Amino acid sequence: MTEKEIKQIKAENERLRADNERLQAEMIRLVSRNLDLTERLEADVELRRRVDVAREIFEHNIERQRNADKQDDGQLMALIDLRLEENRAHLNPDFDSHQLAELLGVSQERLNKLFRNKSIYRTPEGYIDNLRTLNALRLLRTKPNYSIASIAEDSGFNHVRTMQRRIMDVVGMTPAEYRALFIRDL
Predict the structure, then answer these.
(1) Residues 57-91: pLDDT tens digits?
(2) Exposed/middle/buried for 11, CB within 10 Å: 0-12, 13-18, 19+?
(3) Whether 73 contacts 81, CB under 8 Å
(4) What residue spans of the chain are helical by DSSP H?
(5) Which residues of 44-54 are buried (b: 16+ CB within 10 A; e: fewer)?
(6) pTM (predicted TM-score)
(7) Are 105 and 66 contacting, i.e. CB atoms less than 8 angstroms apart?
(8) CA-based, 20 to 30 A from 117: which of 13, 16, 18, 85?
(9) How far apart (Å, rounded) are the C-alpha atoms in residues 118 and 129?
């Protein structure tokens, strides 16, 4: 082999080595890109799965609400008593008619209509207020050592004065006077 042929072979060898390094770098870049695309695809699939689950839950809740809104008024009133007796949510001062509707799985409109047409309380708020008042009266009778403020708090009233006004409206006397009726009997 001549020196010229050897130089050509060496040059060809160098060119092939450079091509090989370039191809290896390109392969690493493509593998990296593939991994990135795979991660994005997996994230997209997971996001779609979550959206589908959320959509299913949303549709289930809408269907549940539609079905609950079709319930018989008498059944719904009984369900109200049952649910509130079970969890006593009305004793939480923050419990309101929106939470009552949610607890029952009915719309606020359906709940308001029910109370307007089928209840002596006329509003869900009046019903909740009555339950709190009845609880306060019970505690006044059965817990003579509780303070009036403790009874108001345990009955779900935000303010002692609110409880005092409600009891005055219902029984015509203050909480202390009402309690005194039962303490004398002890």
Answers:
(1) 887 776 666 655 556 777 788 888 888 888 888 89
(2) exposed
(3) no
(4) 3-69, 73-87, 97-104, 108-118, 124-142, 148-154, 160-171, 175-185
(5) eeeeeeeeeee
(6) 0.60
(7) no
(8) 85
(9) 17
